[in-house]
## 1
Amino acid sequence: MLIFRNKAPLTAYLQEARAAGQRIGFVPTMGALHEGHLFLVRAAAAQSDVVVVSIFVNPTQFNDPEDFKKYPVRTDTDTEKLLASPASVLFLPDVSEIYGNVKGEEPLEHYDFGKLETRWEGALRPGHFQGVGQVMARLLAAVPADRLFMGLKDYQQILIVKRLLALLSIKTELIPCPILREKDGLAMSSRNLRLSPAARRQAPLLHETLVFVRDHLDAMPRAKLIARAIERLEDAGFEVDYLALTGEDLEPVAAGDLPALCIVAAWLDGVRLIDNLAL
Ligand code: AMP
C-alpha cells in the first residue's frame, strides 16, 4: 500500500494509473476505522483496480468544536487495518494540505443544497453539510475517482454528495453501500468508541426502535407509533433529536403515502448517534 500525505504526487500517480486503463475506487473516511469502513474498501476493490482510502478529520464539518477535539484519532491501527485490506493507496493529508494556509485565503465556498440543508442533520448541525461539501470537493479534486463508495448509515450525506457531484459536474459515480452493524444491531460508528460500558449496553435500543417502528407501521396511527418509539428511547436515557418517517428524498411523507425510511438521531451518554432503516 502506498501512503501519500500530499495531493500533487497522489493526483499524478492516479492520473497515470487511469491513463493506463485502471479504474480508481475511492473511500473517504475520518479514520478510527471499523468493519463498516472495511466493507466499503472491499466493495471498492470488487469494482476497481486501485482503491484509495483517505483519512482526514475534516474540521469544517464539525459544528461543535468539542466534538472535533474528541474525535478519535487512530492512525497507526488504521494503517495496520488497511495494510491487511485490499486498499492500495492511503491518503493522509493534514489540514493545511487540504485547506491551505488560512491567512489570505478566499472564503470557503457555499453550496446550494436546497431543502437538504435545512432538514434533520442540516437543521441540527448548522454548517455541517457545507463542510462536507467543502472537503469532498477538495478530496475529489485530488483523487480522480471513477467510483466513490459511501455508507448509507449517513443517508443524508449521500444525498448531499450526489447533489455536490451534479453541482460541480463531476463524473465520479456514487455507490451507496449498506449499513454494517454489530451483532446486537448497533450501527458501527467511530463514535461508539466514546460510549461508556453502560451506555454501550443501552445503545442497541436505537436500532431495535427502528425495527419496532417498521414492524408496527400498519398496527397503529403513525403519530402514536412515533410518540411510542420516542418514549421507549427516552425511558432508556436517550435524548432524541428526531425520529421520523420519510420518503427516499428525506422529505416528510403525507398521511396517505408509504414512507421509505425511518430515520433517527439521539444522544446517549454525551455521544450523538444516528441510524436509519429502509422500510
Ligand atoms: P466516517 O469515517 O464516519 O466519516 O465514515 C466514512 C464512510 O464510512 C462514510 O461513507 C460512512 O457512511 C461510512 N460508514 C460509517 N459507518 C458505517 C457503517 N456502520 N456501515 C457502512 N458504512 C459506514
## 2
Amino acid sequence: MGLVRLLSLKQHGDTRGSLVSLEFNKNIPLDVKRTYFIYNIKPGEPRGFHAHKKLKQLAFCITGSCRFILSDGLSTEEYLLDTPTIGLWIDQMIWHEMHDMSENCVLLILADDYYEENDYIRSKDEFMRRVNGDELQNTSTI
Ligand code: T46
C-alpha cells in the first residue's frame, strides 16, 4: 500500500459558499481526542520532521497549500495538500515533513490521542534505527 492515503469529504456548496462537516467516527473514521491548527506561516519555514510512535492523525489544509513528505524509512512519497475537502492520513511510525507552506496556509489536524511529547521521534537517525530494528525482528521470525 502507498504512503499517501487520502480521505475525501463531501462539500455542501450553494450560492452562499461551501461547507464541509466532520463527524468523528462517522465520515471521519478516527477516534478523535484532539484537534489543533497551524497558521501564521512564516514562508520558507518547514515543519514536522518527526514520526509518532502510536499517534494516528488526519491533516486538512483549510486554506492555501502545503507539501507533505511522508516516509516509512523504506520509501518516500509526497503530496500537495491544497483542497479543504481532502484529508491526508499520517499514520503512526511515518516520518513526516511539511514544506512549501503558503503564507495563507491553515492546517487542521485531527489526532486520536492527547499531546504527549514522549510519543514523538524527532531524530531521523532514531526513526531509521527503530524501523530497521523492526524489519530485522520481522525477518528473523520468518
Ligand atoms: C504533527 C505535525 C503534523 C502542544 O503543546 N500541543 C499540541 O497538541 C501540539 C501539536 C504541539 N504542542 C507544542 C509542542 C511544541 O512546543 O507546540 C509546539 C510546536 O509543535 P511542533 O514543533 O511539534 O509542531 P510541528 O508543526 O512541527 O508538528 C505538528 C505536531 O506537533 C505533530 O504532532 O504530526 O504538526
